[in-house]
Amino acid sequence: MLEDGSRLLLLDDRGWTEELRGAGADEIDDLWALTPERDIVETARMVVGPDEPVGGRSQDDMETDHWNALAEILLAQGVVVDAGELRQLPHDVELSDRLRARLGQGPGGVS
User: Fold this and answer.
1) Among 1, 2, 90, 106, which residue has the fewest nearby CB atoms (within 10 Å)?
2) What is the model's pTM?
3) Taking the CB of residue 100, how many other CB atoms lie within 10 A of it?
């Protein structure tokens, strides 16, 4: 969120799938009914990065790359911010009203 209250999208190219397995899995009609909001929030935090180290890179290298990439996305939208400063800001996961409805909640997380 910017100082004026407006928002900019940073990442919209991430996602994941889940599948229920084991005894009785075929009897569940709605996986969403069994999916707590906190699980979605935790998974979303992992999915958006930073990624795990690969190719001899350290976790710090990956985190630095992640925050630099986010700063570049913002720069492309006209917002100049240092990656180190960006890293210190709150990182919230906001679920859409559509997803909240799928989970059986109202807007804002109220059941």
Assistant:
1) 90
2) 0.75
3) 19
